[in-house]
Amino acid sequence: MIKINETKKAIKLIAVKDNSKNKLIKDKPGQITLISEDKTVYLVLKKDEETFTEQISAGIKSVISNFDFDIDIEIDSFETICKGTKKETIIKTIFETISFETHKGLSIAKTEKEVNYNLVFTGDFKNLISELKIICEQINYARDLQDTPPNIGTSEYYAEKLVNDAKGIKGLKVTVLGRKEATKLNMGLFLGVNAGSAHEPRIVVMEYCGDSSKPKTGLVGKGICFDSGGYNLKPSNYMEGMKFDMSGAAVVLSATMALAKANSKANIVAIGMFTDNKIGQNATLPDSVIESMSGKKVLIYDTDAEGRLVLADGISYLVKEKNVDQIIDASTLTGTVLFALGHNATGAFSHSDELIKELSKASEKSGERFWRLPIFKEHLKQVKKDAAPLADLTNACKVRYEDCSYAAAFLNEFAENKPFLHLDIAGTADKENKGQGVLVKTLFEMLK
Which residues form the signal peptide (predicted)? Predict the structure, then answer.
C-alpha cells in the first residue's frame, strides 16, 4: 500500500550517485543494496544510457520483488541527484511503479503480507497525488478487464460490469446498446462480426462533459472478447492471447472513468464495441458484402480482419448520433504493427498533424511511447480497388504487406472528414500474458 508522509518506518530507501560512502553498495545504475547496519536500502542513480526515470523504476521494482518489509522512500534524496528531472516526475514514476507492480489483479494466489511504501518528501503535491491515485486505479481496472478469462469475459459480462462499476461516478452517464438498437442503427458490420456468436452484442456508451466549451472527443475501443478468426480460422498458436482483443475498449472506457473521477475539464463520448468473433451456423462468410452504418458497402475478404469492422460502425455512431468533433480509436488491430514496432511503441496513424502533436505532448507526460506510421493515398486506393466492383471498400487487401496502414485508411473513411487518430496497440496492450492498461495515462493527459 502506498502511504504519503506518514510516520517513518524502520527501513528507508535513499538515492546515491556512487558507492563512495560505502564500498558494499553496488555501483551500477538502477541497482539496489540493503545495508542492514544502516537500516537503509541504497539505489544508485547516475548518468547512463538509461534515463533517471528508467533507473528509478528498475530500482523500485527490485525493492518490491526482493523485500517484504515496510519502507520509507525518501524522495528528496532522488531530487538532489536527478538533475534536470522534476520532483513531480520522480514522485509520479515511483507511485506508478509501486501501483503497477503490487497490483494482485485476478490472481488466485494467497494474499501475502501487505507491505507499506511510505513516500516521504517536502513540498505540496496534494493535487498530483490525488490524480495519481485515480489514474493508477483505472490502469489496474483496465488490466483486470483485460486479464478476465474469455469464458467469463463475454460481451454481456463486460457490459454489466462496466455499468455497475461506473455507478456513483459523478457526471458519468452510461448507456448499453444491444442487438435491437444496433439493428435499428443499421450497424451491419458490427452485427456481421457477432453473427457466429452465442453471446449478444453489446455497445457500452460512456458520456462525460466537464466543460461544454471543449471539443467533443469520441473515443472508440475494439472490444472483441475472443477472436478465433471466424471462418478464416486462426492457426492454434495465433489463438494464444486472443482474450486481449478487447483491450481497446477496456482502456478507452477506463480512461473516461478516470477523467470523470478527476472532475476533468473534458468533453467525452466513449464507446466499447463488445462481441466475440467465432464460427457458428450464422457466421459471416468470406466474400460476403455487408452494408455499414455509414451506408458504405464492405467486401469481407477476411473474417479475421474483424476489428476494423466493429470500429467502423462505432466511428459512424459517434459521428452521426453523438456529433463528435474529433475521434480517437484504440485497438489491438494488426500483426503488421507488431512486426514494425514490436512491443516498444504503439502505432499512431492520422492525417491530422494537430492530433499527432497533442498525442506527442501527452506522451511526454505519460511516458508511453508512440510512433507515427503512414496513411498514404495509395493505401486507400488499394482498399477501394480490392473491393470493386461489388463494394466500396474491403476489410482486407490482397497485398501481403502494410496491413496496419490499409486498416487505418479503411477506418479513416468512416470519420466523415473529422480529425481522426487511430492507435494500434497490438504490440503494447499485453506483455507476458498480462494486460498492461496501456493508453489510460496518455488519453487522460491528452484530454484532461
Answer: none
